[in-house]
Amino acid sequence: MRRMPRILLIAGVLLLNLALGVLVGALIFGHNPASLLRLGNREETSGGKPVSMTGLSLQEAYNRIAERNVPAVVSLEVTTMSVERNSLGELFGDDEFMRRFFGLPPERFSRRKGQSFGSGFVISEDGYLISNYHVVKNGVKIQVRFKGRDREVEAVVVGVDAESDIALLKLKGKGPWPVTSLGDSDDVKIGDIAVAIGNPFGLSSTFTTGVISAVGRRGIGNQAQPFLQTSAPINPGNSGGPLLNLRGEVVGVNTMIYSQSGGSIGIGFAIPANHVRKVVDELRKTGKVTRPFLGVTLKDLDSALAAELGAPEGAVYVPEVAKGSPAEKAGLQAGDILLSLDGKKARGSADLQSRIADLAPGKQVALEVLRRKEKLSLTATLESLTDHQGADGEDAGVYLDMKVGPMTPELMAQYRVREPIGVVIEGLEESSPLAEKGAQPGDLIIMVNYKETRSLGEYNRAMQTGMKNKKLVLHLRRGSAVYPIGVAIK
């Protein structure tokens, strides 16, 4: 009887060694241990159709995600048009004799075609698809390729939102097209399995996996919205492609990576699907995104200054309040400290900016403010940012096969101005006489026939007069350079 425990111990050790041997053998000979993991009984959706996940292994789930979504993920080839300055030609200006003497072209600016590549994914059977704004920026022609299809399909831009880096496109061909399904990014948790599909380095339909490394990551780039961070490998060419959950739903749009080498090091960022859905809905309805305007500059407080002012952690300093803004109308003053927005405590300037950006114009917001160590309760009604960019509430007319819009906050920050100085060219057809003379999307039109065009209203009136008189001289600004373009109206 005393020997029995020793026999049991030896048997237990043998069984443990046998189990370890099986696992090591599986790893060595290529069997996927993930197949041992079984998913629970769940009925999910992918590609817009119900997908039973009952009893699927992780391997089988990956196969199902690829089967449902790869056909709807596309590669984009964008023909871009850039303008180069003829630097020597600038020296002689309009002196035709000197320009001919040195054999210089008649124009001071020359056009140069280029190409950019990225990814996208279809969201409706009638051909709407999502990508990044930076993928299609300055594009004059967009070719779309599906996996397994020899012919390319042309797409047109329905609308773009530079601030969130989202572009909505529409396929020109006939459907129905294979589609993906947008999920709920608010349900995403740290540690969730993540799948990225795209075209890194031109390698079409590349499928990579990782996990969600962080949610609500703020302060990335110039965007106000938070990001999902993922370890799924994302490389140049993945931009605009989907980030999916294990149910095969799109939970984000891959948009950028952190890397010192240019390739993936396991730190990628995706725009959350819920934010994308809101932007795309507006672009689909109106071709543009209307953002709320409060009219304050926000700055984080360091711990020493917060202690001196009696402000709690996360409170935000207001160094400036715009004149005539909703904030000023509500009684907010420069030097105030914002403690909360709609009853939710502030957690830094990026947090407040993101929360304000998610609201709609016309929404009333409750502001808790600390002013000289005294708490105040204020109420502000958000207004449209476009109205405060001098848009006069007008839509831009289409002239010379050109689409324009008001300056965005991103552009005003780029030009270091607090008020609009012109309207921005958002799109140019190849047939546009301005394209022939070197104009490109992103340029500012600051004058039409020597009249300032700070708003869409001023632009419309000046263009209508010029078209009627059959004479137009537009002053365009790109960076620090300003140059005129003359157009003869036939």
Would you write up a description of this structure?
This protein is α+β, with helices and mostly antiparallel strands and 490 residues long. Strand 9 and strand 10 form a beta hairpin. The strands form six sheets. A six-stranded antiparallel beta barrel has the order 3-4-5-8-7-6. It has twelve helices and 28 strands. It is flat, with a radius of gyration of 28 Å.
The N- to C-terminal Cα distance equals: 111 Å
Percent range for β-strand residues: 35-45%
Which class best fits the helix and strand makeup?
Answer: alpha+beta
Fraction in helix? 10-25%
CATH class bucket of the largest domain: Mainly Beta
Low-confidence stretches: 22-38, 40-47, 87-92, 390-394
Which architecture of the largest domain per CATH? Answer: Beta Barrel
Q: Domain count, please report it.
A: 4
Overall mean confidence score, pLDDT: 80
Radius of gyration: 28 Å
The name CATH uses for the topology of the largest domain is Thrombin, subunit H
Tell me the major beta sheet.
6 strands, antiparallel, barrel
- If helices are DSSP runs of H or I spanning 4 or more residues, what is the number of helices? 12
This entry's quaternary arrangement is single chain
Strand order of the largest sheet: 3-4-5-8-7-6
Indicate the overall shape: flat
- The tally of strands reads 28
